[in-house]
Amino acid sequence: MSELNETWKDEARQLTELLSLSNNPVAVTFTNEEIEVEKRRKAWICGALKKAASGTSFVIDKETSACRGGTWHCGLGEPPSSDARRALQHFLTRGEKLTASIVSFQRMQDLGSAPPTGLSERIFIGPVEQAPIRPDMVVFVCTAEQACRLITLDHYWDGKPPHMELTGSLCHAAIGYPAVTGNTNLTLGDWTARRMQKYPADVIFLTVPYERMANLVLAIPQCSAGTAEVVIPEAFRDTVSD
Prior knowledge:
The protein has helices spanning 2-19, 45-53, 68-73, 82-95, 102-110, 144-154, 170-181, 191-197, 213-219, and strands at residues 26-31, 58-61, 122-127, 137-142, 185-187, 204-209.
């Protein structure tokens, strides 16, 4: 375990130094194991991501998840049905005012990916450097330029553009969607989460499934989004602006 532990910490450290990240890369792990962290009160998952980027670790289960939406978006509970679904329709269309009608609400639900319902008993969310078990994914709370470099490193080896789900709740786009698809994902977060958690205006969220992290690190010395020097052939120099 210690060798693996050092592996994910070292990978995060190299990317943090390369990009001069001001926020800690955040480890997210779905688990049925008991994990010891300092006892905390209930937490919103979108808030836990922010605090984890600043150094705090959380273990969230159905009882300690403070947001019903986050509970089912991240698979800790069943999606709402019957009266609870009607209440959610009303809240999103007349309360939060995030979508125009119950028809557009339905499209938001059906045209996006399904949540990871029943995947685990709990979720660890904390700085990668504090992660006691292997992350399932790493969330970078970063700027657009930093995300651009991470995405370039992510598909450097295979050239396959990532299939992303930009919209939807922050917890689903940053955690649920990468969990069920294995895809790297970029999201701006939903407006309610950004506003409630007071995320800085320039912050976006880039999630990398952990099994892809080693390739990002291996690409650093080879790719110009890492440390490789750009070499412009003489024939192209007159077309490249200063």
